[in-house]
């Protein structure tokens, strides 16, 4: 204990703001500290001294330690303790191979369905506490700095529809349609025939209720279905995949994009919007934060650097046309979600378990901090299935619906 205490004193002195620490039989730090940590068991002193933030987060969820202070202050302390995970360096080749092998068996259909149910079927009302009214559970697009979260989410939906150049009468597929925000926006604002799929029973039921309430039967359909099971006999003009490919697994990415190519008519466009790793060799956040998210939030989630995503996309037979980073937008989105949850903690505890509330408090604020600091990123990748090319051959003379410049996205 004495050895840990010396290391912890050094840690506390080096932090960017004041932290008080209490444990059975002792305390350290100022009484007016901005952040207070109360350890119910002395054994967590070692994790604190080593900067093992994931272990401390796990202890907080299990109510073995308590945290007091604003979430931005708490995350400033966490960031200082863990250091920069992107600067950790290259993983050995055997670790990269092992990661790909592990990814192959962990993303079978029944396993993916259980993992999605674990996350999205917590409670619709719980998510409604801190999401916007459309329940868009992905990065917003703050086109104007003064936008509210709700306005920025609508701007994001429109940004995707514009990038895809949606036209009335087109067949549109939304893979991982969530609570239907993009699906309904595309149908009502752009006149497409929209089909959505999800593995979440709660989301499937919720969207089908909206379809009935809005009189969209015949124009919008929502299926409880794995992307691998979508029929390929009637190709789509446009496809969107928003916040979905993170669940696919790095070993399946090329096959995922190949499936999208088969679902897309020649010349058609696809938008892939999702979280990417910030470093080439950082598959998850450091300090054990990635393990914490895997355990409590997104089991089976895997991140790849955008360069590897682009490679898999091309291996799947698609042509990359446009790439846009929305990393700062996701930091602001996540802080808005975090603030929304903090304002509704009492109600959140009525809707779900205390353990879930604690996990999401750390998850939302921790991810906001990670996007803010560039530890993880997010990209929108616009691609096409080229027309006029030999199957699996070169794309000489290939064409798509993509105009010659980006002006159509912003008109």
Automatic annotation (TrEMBL):
<dbReference type="GO" id="GO:0032259">
    <property type="term" value="P:methylation"/>
</dbReference>
<keyword id="KW-0443">Lipid metabolism</keyword>
<dbReference type="Pfam" id="PF02353">
    <property type="entry name" value="CMAS"/>
</dbReference>
<keyword id="KW-0949">S-adenosyl-L-methionine</keyword>
<dbReference type="GO" id="GO:0008168">
    <property type="term" value="F:methyltransferase activity"/>
</dbReference>
<dbReference type="InterPro" id="IPR050723">
    <property type="entry name" value="CFA/CMAS"/>
</dbReference>
<keyword id="KW-0808">Transferase</keyword>
<keyword id="KW-0489">Methyltransferase</keyword>
<protein>
    <submittedName>
        <fullName>Class I SAM-dependent methyltransferase</fullName>
    </submittedName>
</protein>
<dbReference type="InterPro" id="IPR003333">
    <property type="entry name" value="CMAS"/>
</dbReference>
<dbReference type="InterPro" id="IPR029063">
    <property type="entry name" value="SAM-dependent_MTases_sf"/>
</dbReference>
<comment type="similarity">
    <text>Belongs to the CFA/CMAS family.</text>
</comment>
């Amino acid at each position: 204990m004495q050895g840990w205490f010396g290391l912890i004193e050094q840690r506390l002195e080096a932090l960017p703001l004041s932290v008080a620490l209490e444990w059975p039989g002792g305390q350290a730090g100022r009484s007016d500290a901005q952040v207070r940590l109360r350890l119910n068991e002395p054994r967590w002193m070692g994790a604190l001294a080593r900067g093992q933030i994931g272990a401390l987060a796990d202890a907080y969820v299990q109510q073995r330690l308590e945290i007091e202070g604003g979430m931005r202050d708490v995350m400033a302390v966490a960031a200082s303790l863990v250091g920069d995970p992107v600067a950790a360096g290259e993983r050995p080749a055997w670790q990269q191979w092992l990661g790909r092998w592990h990814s192959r068996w962990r993303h079978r259909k029944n396993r993916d369905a259980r993992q999605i149910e674990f996350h999205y079927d917590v409670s619709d009302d719980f998510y409604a506490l801190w999401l916007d009214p459309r329940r868009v559970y992905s990065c917003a697009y703050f086109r104007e700095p003064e936008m509210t979260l709700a306005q920025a989410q609508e701007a994001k939906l429109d940004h995707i529809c514009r990038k895809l150049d949606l036209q009335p009468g087109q067949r549109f597929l939304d893979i991982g349609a969530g609570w239907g925000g993009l699906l309904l926006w595309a149908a009502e604002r752009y006149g497409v025939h929209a089909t959505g799929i999800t593995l979440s029973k709660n989301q499937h039921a919720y969207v089908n209720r909206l379809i009935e309430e809005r009189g969209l039967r015949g124009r919008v359909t929502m299926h409880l279905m794995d992307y691998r099971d979508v029929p390929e006999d009637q190709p789509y003009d446009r496809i969107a995949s928003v916040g979905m490919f993170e669940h696919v697994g790095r070993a399946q990415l090329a096959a995922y994009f190949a499936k999208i190519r088969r679902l897309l008519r020649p010349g058609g466009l696809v938008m892939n919007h999702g979280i990417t790793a910030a470093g080439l060799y950082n598959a998850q956040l450091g300090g054990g934060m990635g393990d914490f998210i895997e355990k409590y939030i997104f089991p089976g989630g895997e991140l790849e650097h955008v360069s590897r995503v682009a490679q898999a996309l091309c291996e799947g037979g698609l042509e990359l046309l446009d790439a846009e980073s929305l990393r700062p937008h996701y930091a602001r989105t996540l802080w808005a979600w975090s603030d929304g949850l903090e304002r509704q903690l009492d109600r959140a505890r009525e809707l779900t378990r205390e353990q879930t509330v604690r996990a999401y408090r750390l998850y939302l604020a921790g991810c906001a901090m990670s996007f803010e600091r560039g530890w993880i990123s997010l990209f929108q990748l616009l691609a096409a299935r080229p027309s006029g090319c030999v199957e699996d051959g070169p794309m000489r003379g290939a064409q798509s619906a993509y105009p010659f410049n980006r002006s159509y996205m912003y008109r």
